[in-house]
Write a structure and sequence with these properties.
alpha/beta, two-stranded antiparallel sheet
Length: about 375
């Protein structure tokens, strides 16, 4: 495992994201319970291979992510790992009881990296004016928080404004080569780089979407480096950015963590030829993929019909890339509601960090499913 200095400590370049841990049998969706035995195997592998940064949040798996992590790491010395968790003001507006519960769930007396969760244009005023920042700064003075930061899905101007609030210790951004080329990620990165704020990266493989492109583009990357996985290209790209500190990966299987650990075994950068090839592949891939869903599941919690939106959007993307046969997977989605049940209320779209017009897509999927019957 390769490491990078951060202030007075050293952090593994690969961080363990705990939003997509194995789910217990019969449990699925945003509130799914975690399969503790399978997830423990992943944590043990991470610890034994030098991963020392573990990221979770109060709302992940309806709290089970924090509870699991507190349980899973109890067997290890507290100084051998660093905990990161988050406060989401739109879900729980009062920080005091949330923070106390998080310490209890994680079985610790301090949080190493604490974040204000998912900054956006919709919640920036709440974060700035509620007093929660002052509360967490006070906890930092008391030693109950070691480093204070925030994660952002905001636009460039909102990010700039928030970054200037006070000297943040770190920030978390969604960075991957697709968004770097086609989104505002490069500008967001520069906002933090100019302020010398270290960056923790989320969604480096875009929720797994960049782990498997099209057969043609996969073949181009494999021809260049047969021993690299497709996902590792995405991780290697992010690893080359100087302001990046830790690269989080939400690993849900031993196969995934083995591959990622291998990628971070040495600090090998992409060559100029590699980068040029990756951008060419990205351009071709973009011409085929339509919906930039990262399966963050923020859309699901407010859906009155209980629709498993990310799973349906995944099938929609597969349909756009590979054809009508992908629609055969629609009946197998574990979901209370189907696209045909969508009432078009827009609750999902208002919470989507990617600004996806979900009701329109649900209507289109409903028509596609009807035609495929």
């Amino acid at each position: 495992m390769i490491y990078k200095p951060f202030k007075d400590i050293s952090l593994s370049r690969l961080g363990m994201g705990n939003m997509r841990l194995p789910e217990a049998e019969g449990s699925s969706g945003p509130n799914a319970k975690i399969d503790y035995e399978k997830a423990q195997e992943i944590i043990d592998y991470a610890m034994s291979h030098g991963v020392n940064y573990y990221d979770t949040a109060y709302i992940y798996n309806d709290g089970d992510s924090e509870r699991f992590l507190g349980h899973a790491l109890q067997k290890y010395p507290r100084e051998s790992f660093y905990l990161a968790t988050k406060f989401f003001i739109q879900a729980t507006p009062k920080p005091e009881p949330v923070f106390e519960e998080q310490l209890e769930r994680l079985k610790t007396d301090h949080i190493d990296f604490y974040l204000l969760h998912s900054l956006s244009e919709e919640n920036v005023e709440d974060y700035l004016n509620s007093g929660c920042i002052d509360y967490f700064l006070e906890q930092q003075k008391k030693g109950r928080i070691r480093y204070l930061g925030f994660s952002s899905h905001a636009g460039v101007e909102t990010l700039r404004r928030f970054a200037d609030h006070h000297p943040w210790d770190f920030a978390q951004l969604q960075i991957n080569y697709f968004d770097w080329k086609y989104g505002t990620t490069r500008e967001e990165y520069q906002v933090l780089e100019e302020r010398k704020i270290p960056i923790m990266v989320m969604e480096p493989v875009r929720g797994g979407r960049l782990a498997d492109l099209t057969p043609e583009e996969n073949a181009r990357l494999k021809a260049a480096h047969p021993d690299w996985s497709i996902a590792s290209w995405a991780l290697r790209f992010v690893k080359t950015l100087p302001q990046v500190q830790v690269i989080l990966s939400g690993m849900s299987s031993l196969e995934q963590i083995r591959d990622n650990v291998a990628t971070f075994r040495e600090d090998q950068a992409l060559s100029q030829a590699d980068t040029e090839l990756l951008m060419e592949v990205c351009e071709q891939f973009r011409s085929q993929i339509q919906i930039p869903c990262t399966a963050c599941r923020y859309c699901c919690s407010g859906c009155p019909m209980g629709i498993n939106i990310p799973e349906y959007l995944k099938i929609y993307n597969d349909y756009k890339v590979t054809g009508a046969w992908a629609l055969s997977y629609l009946p197998g989605v574990q979901s209370k509601g189907t696209p045909a049940d969508c009432i078009g209320c827009g609750a999902c779209a208002s919470h989507c960090p990617q600004s996806i017009q979900i009701p329109e897509l649900m209507a289109e999927l409903a028509e596609l499913a009807k035609a495929a019957q």
